[in-house]
Structure formats: structure tokens, C-alpha cells
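I am writing to request your help with a piece of structural work I have in hand. Thank you for your consideration; the sequence and its C-alpha cells are set out here:
=====
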Amino acid sequence: MRAALNPSSSVKVRCCVVGGGPAGMMLGYLLGRAGIDVVVLEKHADFFRDFRGDTVHPSTLQVMDELGLIDGFLKLPHQRLQKMDGLFGGTPVRIADLSRLHTKYPFIAFMPQWDFLNFLREEGRRFASLKVMMNTEAVDLIRHGDTIAGVRAKTPDGAIDIEADLTIACDGRHSTVRERAGLEVEEIGAPMDVLWFRAGRKADETENLFARIEPGKMMITFDRGDYWQCAYVIAKGQYEAVKARGLPALLDEVVRMAPVLRSGIADVKSFDDVKLLTVAINRLKRWTRPGLLLIGDAAHAMSPVGGVGVNLAVQDAVATANLVADKLQRGCPSEDELDAVRRRREFPVRMTQAMQVVVQNNIISGALQGGDRPLKVPLIVRLITALPWLQGIPARLIALGVRPEHVQSKAAPASSAPNSVGLMSR
């Protein structure tokens, strides 16, 4: 049984957004922009999480442009990627070329997610109706009969009840809100996990390779300016076996696959510098309860294939604001009105997950099985590499997704009043 948590105070808002990730912060910004009384809860004291995704795709850049934020956003430190090149069993391949897209921002911006989230929080301070509560973790739901009426949260100062007409869960693939609401998750599965670490980079070290695939091994590297961000893919459940072989064995294999990392690999001093990302693909069968909506990873966990998770979450947030912001001005939308978000977003989620499963089953699983036979480049990859015009097709799927969303929610009249600090500083 869970221990009782006696609230020391309570707050009443129109909308409570649980989770300060990309979905939660973007939705909070959009609802605050619309003049809706909204609070975003983030359980950590800051946004610094080294293992969070940091690929900002053209679909998200377009949203930032539509909000009038793009100039300031692109002033933040970032790197840009257009061509996705790799080595498949030693054979050079090109997976996608974003320069072929007819879009305003034909590149992927690599930016630490904490910079993205801090940017949204700072820009959101102009909206008096938006409050962000850091160090505030939702631990249970408040119920009025069958209706969700807010959340009970813990803070460094004690428990607090946040009563809300509408609660929106954006608290990730291990969602507490989802578990408390008893919503059923459909597991799709993934054959791999990922070891995430960084290696130092010298100014004269340049390489355009994005992915390396060999029998039994796969690795992704991102040029992050002063360091290389690395993702070493392992078969599902093999982390303890990798640890048992020892860190030197792992790093020797990493440098063999990616010699450019040789000078900087000393930055990885122990397994404490290596983060395990447990890969999962799943989705909810039902995204709502009366008074409750789930979006982002809380509704559908994505594979890292394509790096689309952050951008799917942002798209969910934009669609949610488009569909419910006006209704929220008058109170909580009905469950059927809330379910319009699922009806809008389920198709792109299912299609994206289906494409991720195809890549997993036809490329990643075969590579991770190993064996003595050399890897053969799949026919579709050979065709894409040989015919440059085909490189725009995967580029579009990765960059824009199946159904990109555009900002339609209205902005409330501008207010010059600074945001209150009572909830902001918690």
C-alpha cells in the first residue's frame, strides 16, 4: 500500500500538465500563450538529463517559426545535419538527404534538450497564466467519482494538491499518471538497448559518418562541437554481459568501429559515464479518462530509430492545443472531445512505430545477431544510396513525419505583466 501523503496546501488551476519534457513544456507554452491558467509540473530541480534526445527536426523548427521563436532558438548553440551517411559492413551508404526537402528548415538541429526546455520556460515567462513548478513530482491522482480532478504532488516543502479542470500527463514512458489511471499499454517490443556516452572531440577532428553497422554491432555518432555523442547499440538484455567483459573491452570495440574517437575515448572513465537506455515501443489503447489526457511518451513510447521521439511529442502538444485550447476556456472538455487528440495523432504514431519496427526487424536485428558471414547491404538501402532522388523520401519521413502539425491555437492579447514567482520558484 502507498503511504498517505497529507497535503499542506492546494492550488486550483484550469489545466495541470504533468511532466516538463518536450510535450509538457511545449503544451504549457501554447496554453499559456492562449491565456489559459496552466501549471506545468517537473519533478527534477532542472532539465539537465544527459540521456534525453536532442535531435530537433524540421517539423519542430517549423513550429518554433510559427510561434515567432525561431530566431532566438537558432541562436542557441547547436550543430546541423543534412546528409545521413553510414558504413554498412564496410560499405558506404547514404540513408537520407534533408537538403532535398522543400521546407524552410531542411536540417536536423542537434541541441541539448535542456537548452530547448529552458528556452521554452524563459520564453513562457511572458505569459502570466503559465506557471512552471520545478522539484514537484505528481504521485497520485485526485478523483471526484470517475472524474480525474487534478494531482497530488510532493515538493521539498511538503505535499500539495493541484486541483484542475483538466489534467494532461506528459510524464514519459514510465508515467506515474498512466499507472494511477489504470490505462492499458500495448507492448510492441524492441530487439535492442543503447549505451549512451560522450567522447572528447578536437577541433580538427571531422567526420560525416552517422551510423556504423557490423556483424553483431551497431554504433551511432553525433558531432556535438566539442565532443562526440555516441550511441552503442546492444542486443536487448545484454548490458550485464557487456559490463562483465569490462570497460576496456567495450572501449576497444568502440574505437575499432570509430577510429575518430581514439583521442577522446579517455573521457569514459567508468561505467558511471555510460548510460543505459532501455528501448521500448508501446502505445496506449485509450488515451483518456474523464478529466484526463495522456500525450507524448506517456501515450506512446518510440524507438530511437530516426530520432523522432522529441518531435512526435511536440507534434502531440501542438495538436492538443489546437483541439482543446478554445474548449478549455469554458471548462473541461468532455472525454469524447479529449479523445479527438488520439483520433488525430494515433495514425502518425502507428505509422512511425510500424516503420521503426521494419528497420528493427530487417536491419538492426540481423546486424546484432552477428555471425561469421559479412553483412550484405539491404536492397532498399542500396537503391537509396545509388539513386539520390530517393534520399528525399526517408528524409521527409524522418524530418517532417507522417502528419506534421501546425500551430492553430490562438494567442491571447499580449500582456506585459511578469509571471508570478510563487509557483515558478518552487
